[in-house]
Amino acid sequence: MDGGSYKEFKRNFAFYLQMVAFDLFSEGSWYGMECSGFMRECGTRLAAAGYAVFGIDYEGHGRSKGARCYIKKFENIVNDCSNFFKSICAQEEYRDKSRFLYGESMGGAVALLLHKKDPSFWNGAVLVAPMCKISEKVKPHPVVVNILTKMEEIIPKWKIVPTKDVIDSAFKDPIKREVIRNNKLIYQDKPRLKTALEMLRTSISLEDGLNEVTLPFFVLHGEADIVTDPEVSKALYEKASSKDKTIKLYPGMWHGLTSGEPDDNIEIVFADITAWLDKRCNAVTFEQILRPSNQGFEKFDNTMVSMAATSGRTQSNGTYLCGLKRPRTQRRSAM
């Protein structure tokens, strides 16, 4: 792979949250985004719900080496994620845990391809506005695509692909939008030629093979999303061969369901995600470990869902990681 060996790539991953590991959660991010900052709140929320969360910066993304957001082959990203996440799953403390994939936008495409690569390995997936198809509203005209295809081997890294500003199109809350713009690890230039074509081909391939999806999944999509098409999430739900599949569409919400909406909407989305997960793995939350009684919890569809506020958690002598306290017995993660 470009940008160094797999060993070097692994040293640069964003491994940002490890708490009381009742189940294992592998997280995939958007195109151009990164794990340690942009996806941090997502990891924090899932860890607070009782899940060990692991994320990786794709090659050329975030803190990983390589030409910025240059995707020579989408398969390379999938293979890197598979090698890394399986190396975590092989560790003794995680061998008996359930294994879930989490992907937003392009990360949703990565999650589906990881499942396709090894259909029996993963216990389920949460797919937030997955890139199963590039919306016609932001995709270049077919004539432009045809011209660019003829040039991809000559100028693969050129930043010449015409596209609308995805940040303006994806994130509704103007304050959150500004925070994202100020994140220096996030790529905000025009897509490179080869990258754009690889993403387009991947989305077409996924759209054509939706019936091959067999793992349990929960797909979430904003109905007002103009970056990835909510109609394709509907098609995923309808065509997938999975026996356990759930879809939820959010009226008026945009592409950035977990990071670009007003706070009240984000709370709704994460409540839906954790409720879906808890039903499938009998999750025990961090609060339950600290407070064995059921005080502060509410029964919900035969699962225990934490109703305690973060600020009301019992304190313990431990080290802070991403704003949450964890016991000293946990291995310190590398940042």
Automatic annotation (TrEMBL):
InterPro entries: AB_hydrolase_1, AB_hydrolase_fold, Hydrolase_4, MAG_DAG_Lipase. Pfam families: Hydrolase_4. It comes from the Eukaryota. Residues 34-262 form the Serine aminopeptidase S33 domain. PANTHER family: PHOSPHOLIPASE-RELATED. This is Caffeoylshikimate esterase. It comes from Gossypium australe. The lineage of its organism: Eukaryota, Viridiplantae, Streptophyta, Embryophyta, Tracheophyta.
